[in-house]
Amino acid sequence: PDKAFEEYINRENTSFQEELILYIVHGILHLLGFDDLSPNKVKEMRKAENKTMIALKELINFWNVLSFET
Predict the structure, then answer these.
(1) What pTM was estimated for this model as a whole?
(2) DSSP-assigned states of every residue in 3-56
C-alpha cells in the first residue's frame, strides 16, 4: 500500500499533506450538500475542491508571510 500511494503522489505531483487536506475538503463538501454520483456532479465537486484548495494555499501563504514579518 505504501508503494502504491508513493507512486500516486508522484504521478499526481502532490504530497501526503496535500492529499490529506483534499480528502478533508471533499468530506466537508459532502456535508455541505455536494455529491459526486453523476458526471455533472463530479465536475461540480472537483471545481469546488479546486477552488477551496487554492483558497487554503493562499491563506497558508498569507500566514507564512505574516510569521516572517514578526
Answers:
(1) 0.80
(2) HHHHHHHHHTT--HHHHHHHHHHHHHHHHTT---SSHHHHHHHHHHHHHHHHHH
